[in-house]
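== Fold encoding ==
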Amino acid sequence: MNDVVSHSVAAPEDPQRLDARAALVRDRLKQVADPVALLESIFAYAPVALQIFNAAGHSILTNRTFIDMFGSEPPPEYNVLEDEIAERTGLLGLIRRAFGGETIRLPTTWYDPRQLEQVKVIDGNRVAIQATFTPLWDGEGNVGHVAAVFKDLTAERMQHELAEAERDLLRLIIQQSGDGIIVANADGVIEIFNPAAMLQHGISGLRAAPPDEWGARYGLETPAGQPLPLEDTPLYRALHGDKVVDGRWSVRRPDGTIRMLNGTSTPLARADGTRAGAVLIARDETERLAGEQERAALLERERLARAEAERANRVKDEFLAMLGHELRNPLAPIFTALELIELRGQVQSGRELQVIRRQVDHLSRLVDDLLDVSRITGGKVVLRQTAIRIQDVLDRAAEIASPLLDTRQQRLVVQLEPDLMVYADAHRLTQVISNLLTNAAKFSPHEGEIVARARRDAADVVIEVRDTGIGIAPDMLERVFDMFVQAHPSQTNERAGLGLGLTLVKSLVELHGGTVTVASGGLDRGSTFAVRIPAGVPDPLPVPAAEQQPRAASASKRILLVDDNVDAALMLGEALSFAEHDVVVAHDGPTALSKLAQFTPEVAILDLGMPVMDGYELASLLREQLGDSVLLVALSGYGQPGDRARTAAAGFHLHLVKPVTCNDVLAAIQHDRALPRA
């Protein structure tokens, strides 16, 4: 921080003139009572720092101001002609010239006596000094002493250096700022155009221009791409006293590219309040705005994709529901015809009848699987969980899978730890295990063995179904639970399915808070499926009520059966007639209403999906003519909760889902209308 700025040298005075001046001073001092005391007081209390050196450069006198300024008096061994600080700052040569007879004024420099190396100074101050060295002549015309006068400029120097540091820092900030900074003076002349602003405007240097040329020179435009009026230019507005916050404009650079800018412009004023100019700080928001537009477009695409996915999901649900309905319609008369054959004792073709029965049951399960998948993926399945015995679940699952096991002459081995209980939906857990047993039976050889094992494992119950069948390839293990995936597409139709059984297993188990895994040693090495669900609290189970059998009709009922499926209506009508009920069959609403002139039904079984007049409208008209005396039973291929709610709201007492058994219908016509509807 030391520097050499300037110095001045006075030419040596004529010795005779010095002698004359000294003689004059001596004459005047004779008029003072104690001239020595006077000179001592002047030296000691002078307001400037004084130091006297002998001709050899040693300090022989210093005053109080000197000690206050430098913090201490130089030690006796100090020699100014060997001062390292003066040597480092380039001033030592000038000081030596003072000892040669020249008066020297040194430039302002920083001095700290504690930095001296030739002598040890413990106490000291760092000060900015301006020194004048004046030679003192003896009577023979030689330099006998040198007087040094020091002026303390520390405060001024610090203020100057602080101002310089602030200017340097401000200059660095302006030059290195990532924001564009433009400063104009009070006349509108641009004096600062930092590198970021040059980059924003696509120019390589400051090209000053009066305000009326700014638009053309710097490519100023509105965000819409129109020329920016001068009075709307943020810097121009600031020059006229307005502060602009969050101003937005665009710049068309010489290469044709466009940058979107956002900034703040502020008027500048001097300390006395006069106008000094204006400053503009601009930020390039091109990439941010492009990113926002891209994000907005992405969000819009995501919204459209989500809407399309939801629409596709609704279409899928509607399709599955319609498919279930359409599949159940032809199943209904087949189902009823089989029951009629059994009721009439027509068993001459017993083997063929068993084949038809198995295939109808298989089709019914496929329809149920389709609708279950739709309900689960749509979040419409509500579990009815109670404490249940695992033994009851395995028994019921084995009963459901037994037709396939018997057909393939397979042996089911059940290994069960006692008293295993879970808190689960008995129907859904039975569906899980029966699906696993059916799956194992389909892919195991004839006369093979399937093992179902249940055990306790810490806080869980684990149910395993193991087979010795064709196994699963390693690359299929992770996909085997996916919807519509066939692990063995090359197998015959005897083993084919929709690929929904294991998907239902996984979904239902996870709804219970459990997991299902599969392991296989590979092709032809069998498979093991393991279901793990939390164990239930061993509360006492309620004693199950005896299964209620369909009550035999205490008396013949008058039944109006309306269904546009002629085969289904005739078969069900025959079944009801066989049970000694008085049945009138119609295949559309208007025909059914025309029957009321000769027939007053006690029960009306109405198909919902009829043309011309659907079951809802027909039910309303029947209530108008017959009042509440008629029991209304809805018959439909749709069985979703929403479908049942709609029939209940329409006044139906019961909702039967096709295909229905004769026992289901016989039980329905005995329904107590005081019970909750549908």
